[in-house]
Amino acid sequence: MAEPGPSHRTRLRISMKLTGFGLGLRPTHYEALLGEPHPIDWLEIITENYLVPGGQPLHYLERIRSRFPLAMHGVSLSIGSTDPLDRDYLEAVRRLADRIEPAWISDHLCWTGVEGRNLHDLLPLPYTEEALEWVASRVDGVQEALGRRILLENVSSYLTYQASEMSEWEFLGELVRRADCDILLDINNIYVSSVNHDFDPLRYLRAVPKERVRQFHLAGHSDMNGHLIDTHDHPIAAPVWALFREAVAHFGPVPTMIERDDNIPPLAELVAELDLARAHAAGHALEAA
Amino acid sequence: MQLRELQREMQRDLLGRESAIAAAIVDAPPLPAQARLDIYRHAYRARLGEALDDVYPILHKVLGDETFASMAELFIEAHTSVHRSIRWYGSELAEFLAAQAPFADQPVLAELAQFEWTLSEVFDAPDAAALDRSALGACDAARWPSLTFRFHPSIRRRALAWNTVPIWQSMSEDETPPVPHASPAPVPWVLWRQNFKNYFRSLDGAEGAALDAATNGGTFAQICEALGAFLPEEAVPLRAATLLGGWFDGGMIVGID
To answer: How many domains does chain B have?
Structure first.
């Protein structure tokens, strides 16, 4: 939309809408997705995988986007970093968005490095007033640079800081209010963190501002005998399905997708898991054993 | 601890350096603070190791799991990522192997790494529509000597001193690789992408020189001049035309000026 005047915030309200149940786009499924139709409502891409000059990734993406609505999901925004915003990165993300017209752009509520380095991990923030103020100002800069609102996702975490002054859910709720951005709520991440930090996942769920939640993530994790790691290499676990049912009951129908990044099965297997997600959302799924 | 200091200390810890972060981490069940930090330390190394494995699968096979892992550990220790996308991590691996014991004793390893990195560059280099050889026929013959050619952005020229490509090929097909040996003289190779697939082939000295002249913006006359160093004068025009035809058919040429 090129019309002058309204800020990025107004413009967002006329962006495309996604509904239903999606999957993460992974190269191993390119051909299958372009073959027989599948009951997949939309696809989420890892933004960075397509910030390349050309070749197969962008070639497939062009073909796939003619069949499926897309959402862009980044891992390198580093919204919580105390480094300056990376303008080249934001420009590249914006160019890709202009090209493929995603329903929305999301990234993680975390930081990935400082002093120009990228640790390629989603590192937790301390939940302090200082961090809140800082991240809110960064979100504002990012939304201006991208010309649209963004969704921020809660990450799985394995540590918390002594310095924290509030809970993660309080921080998230206050951040989206101050920064005027939206939420990608990862149900598995809530569960993983709840085990690792010994809190009640329902308490988290119910504290999240309802009107901000635009998307759910589901994924599998690994049980390390006492703590959990967010590995995305297993089917979704029973307690996460249970939390998902609570989430649907609480937030209503929210576009939902399954992330699988390792030990990736054939597409049909993920399509079956997506059907299971539909059944859970509809309240028809049998209680998992 | 303020946010900036906390992030610096945390980063130092993940990179395996002296850090004050441990005291700033909550030590509560189910895990002590140090074990919590160790999860991130481990994940950092594992993720960069996977990134190296993605770009250097044949080097991995040649070295075997254990040696590749210890090589990756040394490399990761020496190279932090400054890239937004992890796809660009590991570009310096060939230089690293050429200088690092014990890998430097087998120069074919550095050359193999260079070859695999080049393949990755070819894979996602910018796109451009290739011209058919008929585009050359459409040019007025009087203009030929002054014609220059634009090449596909994926094209890369390498000179390989070892039998790196046969080793790469046999390892790719899970066959026993030939014993590494140096060639009497470095062999020119060209790598490029056509219809979203990577290709590579060796060149004779004449084609190598002609292709270098052409990709550096040389005119058809200059391409012929380059060939003149290798061929009798009367053989040059035919060879030049044949080579150009081959470059067109390979999808290497995207423009004529």
So the answer is: 2
Architecture of domain A8-282: Alpha-Beta Barrel (3.20)
- Are residues B22 and B140 located together in one domain of the fold? no
Assess B33–A contact: CB distance below 8 Å, yes or no: yes
pLDDT of residue A17: 76
Residues of chain B with C-beta less than 8 angstroms from the C-beta of A131: 3
Is B37's Cβ below 8 Å from some Cβ in A? yes
Q: Which residues of B touch A55 (CB under 8 A)?
A: 123-125, 127, 154, 193, 196
Domain range for B221: 129-257
pTM of the model: 0.94
Instruction: Tell whether B156 and B238 lie within a shared domain.
Output: yes
Question: Residue B23: its chain A contacts at CB < 8 A?
Answer: 162
Q: Cα–Cα distance between A173 and A55 in angstroms, integer?
A: 41
pLDDT score recorded for residue A286: 61
Tell me the domain boundaries of chain A: 8-282
Domain final residue, candidates B103, B124, B145: B124
Kindly write down the DSSP assignment for every residue of B58-109, as one continuous string.
HHHHHHHHHHHHHHHHHHHHH-----SSGGGTTTTHHHHHHHSTTGGG-HHH
Taking the C-alpha atoms of residue B233 and residue B227, their distance in angstroms, rounded to an integer, is 9
Record the tokens describing residue B28, joined without a space.
Answer: 């509560």
Closest chain A CA to residue B6: A126
Please judge whether A198 and B193 are an interchain contact, meaning their C-beta atoms are less than 8 angstroms apart: no
Q: Do A227 and B31 touch (CB under 8 A)?
A: yes
What's the confidence (pLDDT) of residue A193? 98
Q: Flag whether the ipTM exceeds 0.85.
A: yes
Enumerate residues 6+ apart whose C-beta is below 8 A from A2: none
B171 lies in the same domain as B211: yes
Contact A162 B25 (CB under 8 A): yes
Say whether both B12 and B119 belong to one domain: yes
For chain A, residues with pLDDT lower than 70 are 1-16, 286-289
- State residue A287's pLDDT score: 53
**pLDDT at residue A6 in the model:** 40
User: Does the distance separating the beta carbons of A163 and B24 come in below 8 Å?
Assistant: yes
